[in-house]
Structure prediction request, 228 residues.
Amino acid sequence: MTDRFHAKNPVYPLFGFFAAILIFAAGLATAKHTDGLWYLLAVWLWFLLFGYWRSCLVIIPFAAVFSGIFAGITYASSGELPATLAAVSRCVAVCLAVLPGLSLPAVKLTRNLSQLHVPRAVTLGMMIVLSFAPLLGREIKRIREAMRTRGAGSLLNPKVFYRALLVPFAARLVNISDTLSLSVETRGFCTGKAAYTVYHPVKLTVRDVLFLLGITAGSVAIIVWCFI
Prediction:
């Protein structure tokens, strides 16, 4: 994601991935129980405790809008408050589950996957996916700035949208894809079996273990509390 959301010291990438799965699963499983919302609040505070304050603050308005839309749809269709609260809980669980990925630099995930000898095609694909979204955002911002400088007009006008935004954006995508392919080739990436090393290995620390243990314990505890 964008660099300003990255945590200064994110947890071990693979542990972040496991934590996301646990949060998502526990959040959906306990969505119909009011205690599930307390669990999600505890998860948010747990992320804050481990230095994810940027993503935790950024996710608040997004979660409010996302859950508000689905809560409104659910209440309008069912008219039941429990179902509405369940919809809110599910949306918040999804938002919290993306926090590890939102805060993780793509290069750290790539290094971690390389250390674990994951196939290079998967490693390269993950790196491109995580890096491409913010890159596209920056390109759209540049095109919009150029439009304002030239007085192109409103995007609500189909001609302006097509000629001033869509065409330059498509051209930039072609250039970016060409540059990316050359960059991958010059850096020695290949999908076949070849020896490689990781210049800055991602090390597993006690902090990472504590983070995952806390998420695991909380997820198991809330499921046991709600269903047993």
User: Anything to note?
Assistant: Residues 120-150 form the longest helix (31 residues). The radius of gyration is 21 Å.
